[in-house]
Amino acid sequence: MSHFPKPNATKKAKLSDVASLANVSASTVSRVLNQPDIVRPEIRERVQKAIDMLDYTPDRMAKALSSGRSHTIGTVVPTIGGSAIFSDGVEALQDELETLGYSLIVSSSRYDIEREFQQIKTLLDYGAAGLVLVGDTFSPDALRLIKKQGIPTVTTYTNKSRHGIPAIGIDNRAAGRELTRLLLKLGHKKFGIVANTALQNDRSQARLDGVREALAEAGVPLPLKNVVEVKLPTIENGRRGLAGLVELQTVPTAIVCTTDALALGAMSEARRKGLHIPDDLSVVGFDDIDVAAESDPALTTVKNPAAEIGRIAADYLNRAMNGQPIPLETELPASLTIRSSTAIAPAR
Amino acid sequence: MSHFPKPNATKKAKLSDVASLANVSASTVSRVLNQPDIVRPEIRERVQKAIDMLDYTPDRMAKALSSGRSHTIGTVVPTIGGSAIFSDGVEALQDELETLGYSLIVSSSRYDIEREFQQIKTLLDYGAAGLVLVGDTFSPDALRLIKKQGIPTVTTYTNKSRHGIPAIGIDNRAAGRELTRLLLKLGHKKFGIVANTALQNDRSQARLDGVREALAEAGVPLPLKNVVEVKLPTIENGRRGLAGLVELQTVPTAIVCTTDALALGAMSEARRKGLHIPDDLSVVGFDDIDVAAESDPALTTVKNPAAEIGRIAADYLNRAMNGQPIPLETELPASLTIRSSTAIAPAR
DNA sequence: CTGAAAGCGCTTACAG
DNA sequence: CTGAAAGCGCTTACAG
């Protein structure tokens, strides 16, 4: 058994300790910390020495409280774990924020808008100086709160700004079109879709819309039954989705899944059912998570540049917090990544 | 272009606003917030009404500063993104902390001990009330800092407590032995290892030790050349590792990779080289990340219960912060998960 | 260029 | 059961 705090715990040195050791006022210590040029070199060095001796580091909390500006940023993503793309974005976001001098509080809403609102509220209570969200669909309460506090906020994985919140991401709809056109070009006419749109997921909805658009353009019908809507973009749901599609009267030859995880599940289930990919069935996903290239066959998908999105989000927030304007919509290229899970449609 | 703060931004209500609206002192408002039973029902309701009207939520920062106890926890993991197991642990950790009333600041050290130390320092400056780390190898500076501040700290993904820091995880060494014994039982005698131990990764080192132990037990030699050490546990390094092992004079029939990502890369590369898994080559990994079950063939591995680790870490921290003792070593079961990437060794 | 004083938004003994 | 006052560890006008 272990106990805290340890008996040998020492209290941290504080600014006033440095001040007395250096024989200066607190104000002066604060200055050498924040605007060293302003203080006489001689004194500056003396204070610096005291800082080093005491191993002093300022309490960011007190600093934030008194200065009115904190250096913590909050983010709410649908999920942090699993095989979703967001963890890559969070990693890049944290990384970039760290170099800019910010810390990141993360929370995952589990694709729940209400929960997202609660988490935003908590982040604000924690004094977050900026917010990084996902998508363009928010609870009215959340929007009101954000507007009310006027805290710098950006949203990610979408290029559409719906509420004045700057957006950074790919054009999901265009990506859906592109992937579909590829399949059409390969001769596919019977499509099946597995889409995690049941929980009003705006990114997947846009992707689905893009698919529909491209199909309509080409005059290829998409019966209602051929679209399986699921809640969460899990591998398991990909399995289930495919299982359903394969039992249709006319079995699709092309399966579009709105995330890679769904596609991996769909491929796995297809294999289990004795279907050969891509000869019997072409499968595509979205995002290009890092395992997408390693499945067998390797998955054809559209790359969602999560790391870049994370970095840009950090930079925009930093700029906004310095009073600089930032673009309302930043569209990143979504590169079509053709691998081995797609092929010419099988002869009927 | 977008600007912050919005012109219509309103300042948050504060405790004193509630106090004047309810015609009571600040102390009283504070009490209805923190120990409602102590205050007369009549007044309590009046204050509550004022709180609701103003939509007041206390500033956690000020609260932390004045009370001396914060509700933010910090974690440093080797990586948040990619196909590592940690994001699942972070998700569960955050989840559980949220229900306990804590927020989580995360940072990723990129498997760099020095960077980890800096991040711990930052977390402490941010007033973290507790720390969740990974592994049992820390920089001396980090250890000194943790001891000095006496802040509740737990470490994860290992069952060994090396510095008095409570550990929660599987017995990686035993897991390595178990996986190896499985392969030995299948008749394998020529082993190849891909281990991310180049960066003094204690978990993978323990796994490797376990492999060595089981082989020694069985009298099966493991030539130096048959162990490829890599830095990061990436899919790409798995590829490279396998490429090297396949060029040995006597090609191994069993490949042990110290993480699933490495194993996925190894399998992918083996396929590319025309080797059939598991007929020509058995491959195993560690962790059982969620895509491990979906690769073709599905990966034989050992489950690392990341979500449970995260939850327990949260609970232990919570207990420690309430002055309760917590176990120094908590070993979680690492269940062997046999799938299709392993088979009887091919006849020589 | 430096210091004394007030203040950030809370909590917490201490009186009453 | 309630309030006035001091304090948490900083920053920031304001004097000097």
TrEMBL record, chains A, B:
Q: Does the keyword Manganese apply?
A: no
User: Which CDD domains does the protein's record reference?
Assistant: HTH_LacI, PBP1_LacI-like
Record protein name field: LacI family DNA-binding transcriptional regulator
Q: Does the keyword Nucleotide-binding apply?
A: no
**Which is one GO molecular function term here?**
DNA binding
Q: Which PROSITE patterns match?
A: HTH_LACI_1 (PS00356), HTH_LACI_2 (PS50932)
Q: Which domain of life is it from?
A: Bacteria
Q: Which UniProt keywords apply?
A: DNA-binding, Transcription, Transcription regulation
The UniProt record lists the HTH lacI-type domain at 13-67
- UniProt organism field: Shinella curvata
Q: Which Pfam families does UniProt cross-reference here?
A: LacI, Peripla_BP_3
